[in-house]
Each structure stands twice: as C-alpha cells, then as structure tokens.
Amino acid sequence: MGPSLFSLSAAAALPQWLGVGIRDVAPGPVAEMNLTASLPSCAVPCLASTAANATCNATDLACVCSNNALQDAARHCFHAKCSFSDTLTSINVTHTACGAPVRDKTAKWNQTIIPLGVVTIVIVVIRLVFKRFFSATSRLGSDDWAITGTLAICIAGMVIGIDGLTANGMGKDVWTLTTNEISNVALYLYILEILYFAGMSLIKLSLSLFYLHIFSGPIIRKLLWATVVFNVLYGFTFVIAAIFQCSPIDYYWRRYLDAGHGSCVNINIFGWLNAAIGVAIDLWMIGLPLSQVIPLRLHWKKKIGVAIMFLLGTFVTVVSILRLQSLILFANSNNPTWDQWATAYWSVIEVNTGMICTCLPSLRLILVRMFPRIFGSSKQATYEKGNREPASKAGHNVAVDLQENEWHAPHDGEHERMTQDRIWGT
Fold first, then answer.
1. Left (φ > 0), alpha (ψ -120 to 50) or beta: where does 240 sit?
2. Domain that includes residue 78, residue range
3. What's the whole-number mean pLDDT along residues 68-96?
4. Rounded to an integer, what distance in angstroms lies between the CA atom of residue 362 and that of residue 369?
5. Are 75 and 221 part of one and the same domain?
6. End-to-end CA distance of the chain
C-alpha cells in the first residue's frame, strides 16, 4: 500500500477545519443557531476567540463558514485544547452546521473490488486445475505455487476490505467516525499493507519462474535467476519494513484510543521507493521476453501475437502508475480515511490485475487445446485435422504449454527451436 497508512500523528491526521466542501457550500439560516451548545466544552473558547479575531461572532456561521483564516486558527486551537475524540466531534459539528455534504465511497469499493476479486480467483483456479489435471506433466510448477500464495493473499484482502475497512468507515471523512472505528481502520490497513508488499513480490516471482520454463538460452537464464533473487529480497525487505514501522507494533493503530507512548518511522519514503522499484521491475520483465522473441525466425504475424501476449503485462504497470498518483495525497493527508482510500483501492486492484496478467499465457494454452485452428500454430491445426489425436501425444506438432516442457541443457542451435516450441508449439 505504499507509505504507512495512518503514519501521521493524531494531531496531523486531522483535516483542516471546514477544509473540505465548506467554502463552496452556502450555509442555511445559521445566524440564529447556537453552535456552542453542540460543541465540546474545550472547543467553545477556540471558536469564540478565533471568531473575535476575525471580526465574526461565534454564532454567526455565515461568517465562520466563509472565513479561511478563521478555519485554520480554529483547527490549531482544537488540536491544542481538545482531545483527539473531541477534535473530531468539533469538526463534525461545524461541518454539519455549515451544511457540508456527507461523503461516502464505501459502496464503490464493494462494487469494484468484489467482482474483480471473484474474476481473479476463478482465473487462477482454472489455471491451477488445468496444470494439475490436464497438462502433459500433470503437476504444478514453482511458478504455480507462487501464484497460489498470491491467491491466498487475494482472498484475505477481499475479506479485510469488506469486513474490516469499509465496515469501519474507510471512504468516509475521518471526523464522521468514532475513535474506535478509526483505530480499526488503521489496524486493517496495517494488515493490508503487509499483504500488498507480499502479494506483489510473489506475482513478480511467479512471472520470473514462469519465464525460466520458457527460455533456454544461457544468458537469459542467468538474467532470470538474478531477477528471481532480486524479487525475493525486494519482497522480504518491504514486508519486514512494514511490520516493524512502529515501536511498539500496536502503536500503529492504538494511538487513536489512548495517548500511550510509541513512535513510527516515516515510511512514506519506503512507499515511494517500493512503487518506483515495482514499476522498474515490471518494465524489466516485459523487456526480457521481448528481447528473446524478436530474433526468432517466426512469421511476422506470430511475432506480433507473441509480443502482444507479453505486452499485456504492461496493463498492471499502468495500474501501478495510477496508484502512484494516490500516494501524492497519501503522504500529505489530513483526512486519512478519505484520502488514503484511493491508495488502498488501487493497491488491491494492482494485486488482482497482476495475478490475471500472470495467468494469461496459461489461459492461452487452454484456448489452444479447445480451438487449435484459431489459437494454435499452422502445424498444430493441420495435425489436429488429419489425426484427431489428443494434443498431449503430438510431440513437437502440439501446442505445447509454455510451462509444460522441462528445461534441459540443449545442444548448440537448439535454443531457438525450444523457445519456439514452448511459445507456439510449432
């Protein structure tokens, strides 16, 4: 999820008083309202003193709601004089009095994440079932086990998002929530952040291992093994950093319930670093297979088809870049349950999209088996038409699964043929 969610102090985590929507909202008949009766006692002197300095009467909300300097002064006073809970109450009361709209994005989360999660789970399960029961090897490879771990993370993330985040108010303005709800949101965001780092690392690891089943050239295999090692270290580093970002660990979410003593590192830099490294790895892992496909002596139409298959992985890179935009607000948020919703939202989408992209080559194989004339090579289509034998018995004329062929040390001159066999089954 990038930077530490709720990594700000309790005071800094609060929004600017009347800072969202108020300046464009015309207050109703507020001049007659007695705002002070609804405010916590600690906030009444703040409103009175700041209103006096701004030539506004404390009960003249028409003046209060339209005065930006007063808003800033009152906010600082609330932080200094009131508890975290009373500050939230004060902001909520003034927003309500000024007629600010009630904002809620929880429905959008459920409407997007649940269908996407279901599609992702179905695609991964189809891949695993096919590899285990219908492929030539009838077993799962190391890349399949890596994506299985990501599947568990995906399911856990769906449950946490629905029963943890949105149920406690993620996607609403922070001042509309109780301190217990804010603490719960922080706890579930903490867990989701760790799952995000682990999930994205496993996705990249799965893709690296998958490429090792395809390419037999000695140079490309050394590069791929180096990529595997880097992905493992990359994931381990950021997972550990996320777990121990606060001391004690539970200070991450308990600071909203009591003052307590603890500290958190500024993990914003880790979030940006993780995102930048992630995008760089994505581009690297798109370039590696394309560098091997271009020299192949294939018909140009086949080359385009192979390139498109690998370039589909750029879609997850696009999602990663979209997520980067949410980190801009994330790092400077005064309204975390509203602003950081976008970071959590795009993080979950990124994990699901990465899993789908990683499974696309296996889905292509299934289509080859079902529709060899359309998705297979010309040799495969001819063979199927003339012999009607099971594809698993057709030798090099079969649409070979990208992952079915075990790598062996080839003789000189075999690398290109093996790569073609594993990509197109020619």
1. alpha
2. 35-98
3. 78
4. 11
5. no
6. 43
Q: Residues 147, 206: contact at Cβ < 8 Å?
A: yes
| pLDDT tens, residue by residue, 160-203 | 999 999 999 999 988 889 889 999 999 999 999 999 999 999 99
pLDDT of 67 above 60: yes
CA torsion, ordered 229, 232, 233, 236, to nearest 10 deg: -170
Token pair belonging to 112 = 């997007």
Closest CA to 206 of 307, 354, 399, 402: 354
Residue 263, SS3?
Answer: strand
231 found inside a domain: yes
Is 335 in contact with 20 (CB distance < 8 Å)?
Answer: yes
Is the separation of the CB atoms in 214 and 289 below 8 Å?
Answer: yes
- Interval 35-61: pLDDT, tens: 667 778 888 888 777 766 666 665 666
Q: Sign of dihedral through CA atoms 405, 407, 412, 415?
A: positive
Q: What is the CATH number of the domain that holds 155?
A: 1.20.1070
Q: Is 163 annotated as a binding residue?
A: no
pLDDT value, residue 366: 80
**Same domain for 154 and 183:** yes
